Amino acid sequence: MKLEDIPADRQAKFRFSRKPLHALNDIQRSALDQIKHKIQDQYAYEEIECFCGQTQDILVGRYDRYGLPHWSRLCGNCGLIRTSPRLSEASYHDFYEQHFVQLHYGIPAVDEAFALSRVTIMNHPANGMELLNTLRPLVDLRESRRVLEIGCGAGWTLVPLKDAGLAVAGCDYDSRQVALGRKLFGLDLIAGGVEQVSASGQKFDLIITINLLEHILDLRGLLRQAHDLLDDNGLFYVMTPGLFHFVSQMYPSLQYQLMIYHTYLFNEWNLEYVLGACGFQRVRCDRFITSVWRKTADGRNLAHVDFHVPVVDAFLKQYGDTKRQSGLGALKSWTRERGLWSRRSDSNR
User: Fold this and answer.
1) What is the pTM of this model?
2) What mean pLDDT do residues 223-232 have?
């Protein structure tokens, strides 16, 4: 369907701005204008049901942080926030190919200087080194463990892992970034998705996804392919911006976290359900979400998962009603009182 075919729908929970919430540079403003034209004249949309199969939901808002049309829905069953309607597959791919880097990073293209700067960031103790510290109790780094990163870009996350002695590989649809990673870092990178990796017949002890799951159209398909690529008892590292992560970043409003290129917004409870349904068992997961999961048999019994939907709904109300930066102090207090502020989770196991 086209934008004009999308019904007005019921009243949204929050009235979000139609203007960008933060300053944009000239490259971002140009990209935004091009995207708006394509939304009007070219891009198509599609409705999707929640991962859990339920259709009862709450329309959270109609616009993203850039003021672009973006329908965020909170599932009344599992508390997962999904985008529906969302860009069709062809429109989504065009957006990523033509506009994502310019809008998100504010640069013309990913070049050598940018890739090298990202390696510096990932080697910082708060980023790549945190990944190593998370993995060390779980993976014997003295062995040449086979590691795959899905959605690796130019491979900046893989560089510190390679330096630590792991045998690393990566895949990304952006062939330009893949070429950069091969040239700059000597990495084993594949231009394409997990289907191209599967065709190679390789298996891995560890698969990494960092800020990836929130961008995926076929979530179940990707996770099942990742499951198949892992050796028995292999580990799956997932980092995604969890719902409660945003308060710690002092972002000014809920709308700031909603972006045209995000398809899902998880919390630790529904992420456990999603990954459990695809054959992964929780090893550790904090609120923000930095998590490790172990490969198990597919289709486990997930009746024990408590989605805490009332807590999520109440949190959204607190967050959505925060109009100014100064109001976040009260929100932080609210989350602390309910045990949602700490990076640790009481249900780690």
Assistant:
1) 0.88
2) 94
